[in-house]
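During the no-cost extension, the postdoctoral fellow (Dr. R.K.) reprocessed legacy sequence entries with the updated structure-token encoder. One reprocessed record is reproduced below for audit purposes.
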Amino acid sequence: MLKYAFRDFFRRRRLARYTAVHGDRYAYHGCEVIVPERAGLGVRNSLLRERYEDDESAMIIRHLPAGIPVIELGGSLGVVSALVRSRIGPSARHVIVEANPDLVDICAANASRGASAGATGVVNAAIFYDAPFARFRLSPDIHSSALDHGRGRGRVVEVPSVTLASLYEQLGSPGTFSLVSDIEGAEYAVFEREAETLAHVTTAIIEVHPEAFERNGGSLAAFKARCLDLGLHLEETRADVLVFKR
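Re-encoded structure tokens follow.
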């Protein structure tokens, strides 16, 4: 549509001016991150306008405790991961899952900024419970990529399956950890199947996807009830980002 063509024209012009001076470097809540042109126009524009993942970032800044290890599901470009690192400090362990193989390199680079050697690990895999490998659809919009259910645009790749329990082992099986998650609806299965590992979570910051829940026979109400059953109480909600604490 014409209005989108005009919008994108001005976005490109604004970004061209910015990158001519700063290259691929962007500021994100006090963190410097690298976001290349291949990330797409929308992502870079939202970073430039300080709107990138603003609900999730606000909850991380407000609620993520310092010094506690983190498992992050859905690392994407590692921008939010860099913010996580800035909150937990340089030495706390931080294990990140990102299913899109095209993003793993940039995710790792951003996530490890300010981290002590060996404190950050990025796993190219998907949370999945039904087979050793998961089919993952890479959407043209990198933030809409998800497990393949036979619909949507983009190429499909196979990536190794992982569970929260296996990630907890990679984290070093600490007594407690924080969970940060944005995995396009797959969080529902995690909370249904991983009670034993979730018992170690003291803070969970989850971007929920109610439409995906409903497509698979669940609901947001059922998800919240499950969290309560697991001893996680809803602390704060901002748009689709929910914060639970034990």
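Residues 1-51 form one domain. The chain is about 35% helix and 25% strand. The remaining legacy entries will be reprocessed before the final report is submitted.
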